[in-house]
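Need the bound structure for 6-O-phosphono-beta-D-tagatofuranose, inputs here:
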Amino acid sequence: MPVSEVEENGQKKLIIEKDGAKAEVFLFGATVTKFETASGHSLIWCSKTAKLDGTKAIRGGIPLVFPQFGQPIKEMAQHGFARNNVWSCASKTDDSVTLTLDNTKVTHDAWPFAYKLTFKVSVEAEKLVTSYYVQNIGSDSFPFHCLQHTYLNVGDITGTKVIGLKSNRFLDKTSSDVTSLNFETSESAEISAFTDRVYVGLGGEVKVVCPSKTIVVEGRASYWSTLEASESVPMASDTVVWNPWEANARGMADFDDEGYKEMLCIEPGLVSAFHKLEPGKVMELTQVLGVI
Ligand code: TA6
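Answer from helper R.:
Posting the output first, comments after.
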């Protein structure tokens, strides 16, 4: 079925349907807001009070972070500008769309570099593949972070366990010491309070065992010498795990008060340090979201 386009609150949304699965992605922020598998599982969470009118980044789905994670560059918005600007649709097939954003459309005085972002959303019956490319199209190297800020629909956080974190080191952003590395000792981590962790170097697969399904999130990064290169070099990536829990959820107008009970963010990214991208080079960050 060809990709269709609808407009809601003045915002264009593309709908991709393939082999019984369905995904929706807004041009605003290139934000995927829905993925339903052919087997009937809805894997993406969106806040009931999310702003969908282009006035702020969408609270939920898969917001895209670039060129900074958090706010190390104080003059720039938290998580950068990719998620709160309108992208262009470069191409469509019957099971994918490719969106782009570049510095001729959006940039920032505190980060004045020539870049091109490309985001390809591909739908399969039981899998959503989102490939995020950062390209340096200028003549100066630039520092960046990038991340897919994936909000998962877990149904009930109290019955959810996260497998695949054990033995990895993480930064705990809820602690008084956010720079020391901690070791994850849980084979099967439960989320029962405000959680905000950066698992450093944890690329690969994380399983989120929910009451009604198991969601598999695979994140992988690779470095391309050019977009036309025949092969890439695998890179270590990071995984962020976040649930704001009750008090923080209540403190965000666009995060519905009970929403923290139904969601968990598992976010593949390159965020534990600024990466330097040389002119002409490309970094790929791909996420594969599936259910078993
Ligand atoms: O990914 C986790 C995180 O960095 C948290 O620290 C929290 O700030 C979250 O992102 C949401 O950030 P936002 O700017 O979307 O409210």
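Comments: The chain is about 0% helix and 50% strand. The longest helix spans residues 245-250.
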